[in-house]
Amino acid sequence: MLRLGLTGGIGAGKSTVSRLLTALGAVLVDADVLAREVVARGTPGLAAITVEFGHDILTTEGDLNRSALAQVVFGDPQRRAALDAIVHPLVAARRAELVAAAPDDAVVVEDVPLLVETGAAPGYPLVVVVDAEADERVRRLVAERGMSEADARARLAAQATDGERRAAADVLLPNPRRAPGSAPDPLPRLVERLWHDRLVPFEAGLRAGRPGPLPPGAPGPGEAERARRRVARATGGDVRPRPGDSWPLRLDVERARPPAGGDLDAALRAVGYVRAGQGWFASADPGCAVVVEEVDPPARRARVGGPA
Ligand code: ADP
Fold it and tell me: What is the separation of C-alpha 81 from the centre of its chain, rounded to a whole number of angstroms?
């Protein structure tokens, strides 16, 4: 199984890309759908919200009145945090359930609008960002979702900047404005190539414990930094590039603290890395050139009788 984090600014085209990936065989876990599901009528989530915010945030039918709740939390960080503290853990638990229920060989696409804002990007083996200029996104929201321009701009301003999202992207899918009557939309073809050339071999490699073929050339600094954050997050360890270079990454295995119950290999596999040889890990991603070297600190080498 390969988990893919899909994000982009509002109106960039995440839902469009999700649909294309689903048509190719991906399993979709949609954060917006989960966020509605966990506060549906009769759920413990809605009960907790009612305890916190009172019955005024319910419709007469007993459903969540989203606009009433939005008014209560808008501009009040404490109330907003109280709401997030109820909803986020429920969404995370439901997401984990759905991911666990996916077939072993699935490519699971998690459509997460706030992937970058919440700092979740390094938790995914691959992050795909759908990218469109801010003005074009506003145009889509006004023309196709009936939002006012002021509303659309306010929504954009509350999200990460395009630069922040691009920095988190392993794959950037441009989805710019197209002039009416222009050539066919290139997006379906781009998504198809991503699926066949990268996602399918990445998933198969990860499942088989087989590293991808290293792409030629050294990784760029952005790629090396994304890999460093990923490996550091997964292992809870001290990860830094070899002195004077941006790679390979060196992982101090003595200080690594993989999540409870997991070993180092399992922790690295969760972010796409498999053992490539004695003391080495490489990503199963055919598009990733960063390798990870295990480093035994001198104290441990001395203890086990190796050279100091
Ligand atoms: P998001 O999920 O990122 O908010 P959507 O996928 O819903 O964005 O796209 C926003 C709007 O723009 C939708 O109405 C969608 O139909 C339209 N759109 C997005 N990408 C394209 C495209 N490549 N060609 C035509 N319309 C598009």
Answer: 22
Query: Both tokens of residue 278?
Result: 């004695």
- The alpha carbon of 113 and the centre of ligand 1 are apart by a number of angstroms equal to 14
End-to-end distance of the chain based on CA atoms, in angstroms?
Answer: 40
Supply the pTM of this predicted model: 0.91
Ligand 1: list residues with CB < 6 Å: 8, 10-16, 140, 144, 175, 185, 187
Cα 15 to ligand 1 centroid, rounded to whole Å: 7
- Class of domain 2-194 (CATH, top level): alpha beta
Among 15, 112, 151, which is best to mutate for testing ligand 1, by the most ligand atoms less than 8 A from CB? 15
What angle, 0 to 180 degrees and rounded to 10, lies between the N-to-C axes of helices 187-194 and 14-24?
Answer: 50
Cα atoms found within 13 Å of the Cα of residue 125, Cβ hemisphere only: 30
State the distance from the centre of ligand 1 to the C-alpha of 12, rounded, in angstroms: 6
Q: Output the six-digit token pair for 208.
A: 């088989």
CB half-sphere exposure, 77, CA atoms < 13 A = 0
Q: Per-block average pLDDT, block size 10, for the chain (308 residues)?
A: 97 96 97 93 96 95 93 89 94 94 97 93 98 95 93 91 96 92 91 98 98 88 93 91 84 83 88 94 94 74 48
Taking the domains of the chain in order of start, what are their residue ranges?
2-194, 223-304
Find, among 100, 99, 106, 98, the residue nearest to 200 by Cα.
106
